[in-house]
Specification:
The complex is a heterodimer of chains A (76) and B (271). Chain A is mainly β. Chain A contains one helix and five strands.
Chain lengths: 76, 271
Amino acid sequence: MAQNDTSNALISLTVNGEPHRIAVGSTIADLVAHIGLDPAKVAVEHNAEIAPRSTLADVTLGEGDILEIVHFVGGG
Amino acid sequence: MTDTATTPAAATATNEADTWTVAGRTFTSRLIVGTGKYKDFEQNAAAVEASGAEIVTVAVRRVNVSDPKAPMLTDYIDPKKITYLPNTAGCFTAEDAIRTLRLAREAGGWDLVKLEVLGEARTLYPDMRETLKATEILAKEGFAPMVYCVDDPIAAKQLEEAGAVAVMPLGAPIGSGLGIQNQVTVRLIVEGAKVPVLVDAGVGTASEAAVAMELGCDGVLMNTAIAEAKNPVRMAKAMRLAVEAGRHAYLSGRMQKRRYADPSSPLSGMI
């Protein structure tokens, strides 16, 4: 995976409102795996657009990208 | 929605299949329960089981990135067995609600959703202007929105015209447990609607769920009344029985009210 790259080249993201750094060239799928989430249980919004699950491995993240990763919780 | 197949007069058998259908999906249970405010996931799952509900409402929230392995609702309530109805609780604009439901659809593939757009935090009363706007957009995007709304027959009609697959008037403010405050308007909504009508919010105890069903509602949606009962699992069962009892009472066609007494025993043959 890209985050194992030893080049130390990192980009800065905002994930769920918090700063997050990941290797250059990482995809959304890499990010989800890096955080430790099961992609089947979450939905991702990338720069205010829905990122369809089928495309997570195809979208390369860029400097300053804003991501929201959500799941279902209890609610009324 | 007034059922034509099972109007009170037509229903004579007590065990005929009594189902309701929303957006092409048919359910037997007329009780929808929320999944918020429970002590833990185990209690929540036990209450859902006891309620007999086939649909649960769920919220869409950020995952905790620092604790990705924390247990999730889906580990306890199986979305393959129980229909998840994603809601937009906490959204105060049409834009936020639509964004939330687009994410919900991506998370689980569901197009049957619960729309609520709130007007203010103090009463959690719906903002009908934003609600109507969101309903139109969601319907155009292929969603099947069940819509939380005011207990106003005109607003309910407008929602239906905008594409709501069910209208869900509040009985009283969310989480208040005050019971059905305006039975007249809830009944008027039922009479006028061509889509299912469910009372959403306000029920505090079993008799109030029965009232909603006796008014002819297709179902009742509740969360706090069960979750904040001292024994939520038992209250879940009480609500199941109340919804069934109220439904049977509605289908039975209640007696007329009289102003004075009318003896039940014969007046003739007295000693």
